[in-house]
Amino acid sequence: MSSMDKMWISFGSMGCMFLAMLFMFFVKTKFKNAFLKFIFGLIAYILLFIGFITMIYIIFNPTKA
């Protein structure tokens, strides 16, 4: 895998973490419905987990020089 591929994966990882942050903000402040809170909270945690796993992959698999 090239360095550019890893760069795009890391951008996707940061995007997942940003979306998770936005979803959690809306869950905590805007939603009153418990079902919507659960669904959006679950999506936020899944995005956070995906972002974390992909970032760990990028950090611990350096590119070959």
Give an account of the 3D structure.
The chain is an all-alpha fold. It has one domain. 83% of the residues lie in helices and 0% in strands. The protein has helices at 3-29, 34-60. Helix 1 packs antiparallel against helix 2. It is elongated. The termini are close together. The mean pLDDT is 91. It comes from Psychrobacillus soli. The chain crosses the membrane at residues 6-26, 38-60. Keywords: Membrane, Transmembrane, Transmembrane helix. This is DUF2768 domain-containing protein.
Would you spell out the secondary-structure blueprint of this structure?
Layout: H1 3-29, H2 34-60
Helix pairs in contact: 1-2
**Derived structural class:** mainly alpha
How much strand? under 5%
Query: How helix-rich are the residues, as a percent range?
Result: over 70%
Largest sheet: none
Q: Figure out the total of helices.
A: 2
Characterize the overall form. elongated
Rg computed from alpha carbons, rounded to a whole number of angstroms = 15 Å
Poorly predicted spans: none
Quote the distance from N terminus to C terminus.
Answer: 11 Å
**Integer tally of domains:** 1
Q: Would you tell me the overall average pLDDT?
A: 91
Number of strands: 0
SSE pattern, N- to C-terminal: HH
Descriptive labels:
DUF2768, DUF2768 domain-containing protein, 65 residues, membrane, transmembrane, transmembrane helix, 83% helix
